[in-house]
Amino acid sequence: MSIETIETPAILIDEAVARRNLVKYQAYCDEHGLALRPHIKTHKLPHFAKMQMAAGAVGITCQKLSEAEAMADAGLDDILITYNILGPAKLARLRRLAERVPRLAVTADNAVTIEGLARAFADADNALAVLIECNTGANRCGVATPGEALELAQTVSNSPGLAFRGLMTYPPVGGTVAVDKFMTGAKELLSQAGLACATISSGGSPDMWRADSAGGVTEYRIGTYIYNDRSLVERGACTWEDCALSVLTTVVSTPAPGRAIIDAGSKTLTSDLLGLTGFGHVLGHDDVSIVTLNEEHGTLEWDGGARFEIGETIRIVPNHVCVVSNMVDHVWVRGEDGDLEQYAVAARGGIT
Amino acid sequence: MSIETIETPAILIDEAVARRNLVKYQAYCDEHGLALRPHIKTHKLPHFAKMQMAAGAVGITCQKLSEAEAMADAGLDDILITYNILGPAKLARLRRLAERVPRLAVTADNAVTIEGLARAFADADNALAVLIECNTGANRCGVATPGEALELAQTVSNSPGLAFRGLMTYPPVGGTVAVDKFMTGAKELLSQAGLACATISSGGSPDMWRADSAGGVTEYRIGTYIYNDRSLVERGACTWEDCALSVLTTVVSTPAPGRAIIDAGSKTLTSDLLGLTGFGHVLGHDDVSIVTLNEEHGTLEWDGGARFEIGETIRIVPNHVCVVSNMVDHVWVRGEDGDLEQYAVAARGGIT
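Structure tokens for the assembled complex are given below, as produced in the milestone run.
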């Protein structure tokens, strides 16, 4: 198989670049005394989850049960699901998952979730580890104050079948000061109440090189860093050479000077903008913009005349890799030996 | 199976509403002497493609080979692929598809595409029907002038293995006047050159109720109308009661007054805005906005205090249904008997 014979659109991953990225960030975490717990939502591939573990990660992060189940199927044995798991069906799945994942943990930010977890694990042989999710400014999930974190930690601690593991937050970009403040306050309250807080877990790729600046954090969760993407390049976290994933696409029409149409649209690149203008970066053509996406068409524009040939393939670094991996059943990985191999995206498809 | 036991997020389709939508638009086309060729990219389900055919459609439209292959597998026998098919692998697939689809047609807007088609079908028993794609203002694909359309029509007509079928356009919203002008001019040129133009195919859901106003159009392609979505409600093409597809989602956190978090994020609802503000419409809660999406979280906001219970399920009409169907391997269809049945989304996953 060679790149010329791959049908487009297709996702290409350069394994050497991916490995370099994950090794580099593992070294950063090692240097700063942080446990690294990579988020597999970015790649959804056991192949790379195992590579991250081999490089020194303490475990992996998943965002939903179906991701965790796919990773457990592949033998991953330390999984944190950073989500409120609710409802009888999901709780039953979580309980079954706990029976085959030696180190499984979840997060919770409310009493209803904790009650459900407690009911599901009341008669479990091993307690389920629970981290309390704290809002440090992203205004998504999370308790609003250290006092509320303490209250839920006590509820967990008093629930047979559950074990309080620590605190977790998904901070806003630039939120390390807020994380520090919240966690310092919460740790003090927990300590006064006699509750051990083994883990303080923070995360987020844009601030990856400032992960050490929030004093109380023991663990960092990060996903995008293995592939990188346009949003991280634009925010200065990496360069185009650090981007391991690109979308291979064919120019299917050159209908006017300064415009070309490619066979990658919103069903491949997705409409995620992440605050940027345009839908991706055309490698080797810095002055070309991807101005609109339809489902199966992308429209490129630039100042000037003829540029691309019909049938020519080009490569695009997407705005946001995590959602692009999720669009396809298979990706092409160029191994460190140069060979192309197709991998099934194991954790795609199960949306629950 | 009942709606209460469906794990969320999930896609729910009300078959009675879908049928009503497609029957109503078929009646409109019948009344106005238009052939209806529904675009199956919206649902990707043979079940609904067959229902559209049974209601009177002349055939179906697909946007890529993998969609057409899935529909051919299910027995659909009149398929137009509105795309420039390029490259040896895809041309070989197209040739194989033609051997089992009695009425297969494609579009082309350039000589390179026509050359490839001509090579692939040079020794075919049955000529491949080709429509020339024309740009009537959407500035995606399409030749710019009636003169260029004539030139390509002649190239097709002179290619053994190909048969000129007519003209095709994907107009901009409100573009019926431009369609009329382009097609009237092109028809005259074709007629002077002695080329029969059997089909003039236009399409687009926002202008569906004005499809008759472009004089030369013989066929209308439309996808979204079977399910409808927030974009069409906001543009006045239908009402919330006409929306057959909704996303069933669970409230997983109520972290602050006026804010709730649901388990449908950009990996379910997608980031498609289609010019709207917010990421969907919460049925029964007109004053609630879906202000942000992360991959597995959606953030609802409203003015006021407590509103939703943790664990409560709500239903969301997405901005754009066509991309939402594409996110999942299965959808739940509530049949006209009230029973829920799970359907595999046959044409999802093959991105080429």
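The mean pLDDT of chain B is 96. The first helix of chain B runs from residue 15 to 31. Further analysis is deferred to the final report.
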